[in-house]
Amino acid sequence: MSEIQKPYIASKAMTDALKQEVSVLKPEQERYFIAGITELTQHIIEHYADFIPFSTQNQMGDLGNRTVITSQSTVDVACMAWNPEQEQTTFQKGLKPRGFFNPLGNIIFLTHPRYFGYQYWRTLHESAKQKWNNAYGTEQKAKREYGALLFSNHALHEILHSVEESGHIAAFSEGAATYYQKELCKDPQLFKYVPFNGLYEYFGRAYEFFVNEYGDTMHNIFFGYPMDNDVKLTILAQHRNFLIEAQRRHNE
């Protein structure tokens, strides 16, 4: 069975031109962020190489060059243009989107860490803020470190989306990415896992249930490793029905 072909991958020249227009980084900062994204992709490969097609692994090598660190306003516009229904729920909750993966070109857009810190700091409980303040001495430093942690978590989440097989429904895709993000953050070399929101956590637990049930088959499905198509479709249908039934029970 041949490997599933990935969508179009933007060239370095194209992404460099895009960065000239919207990136908020200086050249030396750009190199730092590229190295960070590259390191995260290597962690994913180290843990899940047996399930990621070689063609996908080859594409992961220069993902840092296809990651755009930009302003909050640019991410706002790009997110709403790419997926208005999903991102509208984020705006309604009073929070700005933190970034997203665009399969058209295999490009990741992320807001700069400073936006993470100042925007999401207000969502923390006062006791949590105090712990961060005590750890770093001042609120300004605490916000900066908190923003860096959120940025790292979200970058890892979006990288996982960039290497998954295309075509999954959002509940499966977000649940799987949340599950793998949490698993990878158990590695002491990485950062502490930070939950995104209750819905993603719920999807993640549902995906974990299926990993416990079907094991490595779930990794093959998410990353797109060649497998029996009937088996894949059967499990995906079970997963979808599982979520529908859970929602029905919740509404009763």
Summarize the structure.
Helix content is 66%, strand content 5%.
Question: Which helices and strands appear, and what pairs or packs with what?
Answer:
Layout (H helix, E strand, L loop, with lengths): L11 H11 L4 H22 L5 H7 L6 E4 L1 H11 L1 H9 L6 E4 L4 E5 L1 H8 L5 H11 L2 H25 L6 H15 L13 H17 L1 H8 L5 H23 L1
Parallel strand pairs: 1-3
Antiparallel strand pairs: 2-3
Notes on the protein architecture:
This protein is 66% helix and 5% strand. It is mainly alpha-helical. It has one domain (12-251). Strands 1-3-2 form a 3-stranded mixed sheet, with helices on both faces. α4 (72-82) crosses α5 (84-92). The protein starts with 11 loop residues before the first helix and ends with a helix. Mean pLDDT is 88; it is low at 87-94.
Name the descriptors.
mainly alpha; 3 strands
- Name the overall outline: globular
Number of strands: 3
Taken as a percent bin, the fraction of beta residues is 5-15%
Question: Structural class given helices, strands, pairing?
Answer: mainly alpha
- Arrangement of strands in the largest sheet: 1-3-2
Report how far apart the termini are: 45 Å
What's the total helix number? 12
How many structural domains are formed by the residues? 1
Rg calculated over all Cα atoms? 18 Å
Could you describe the largest sheet, including whether it forms a barrel?
A: 3 strands, mixed
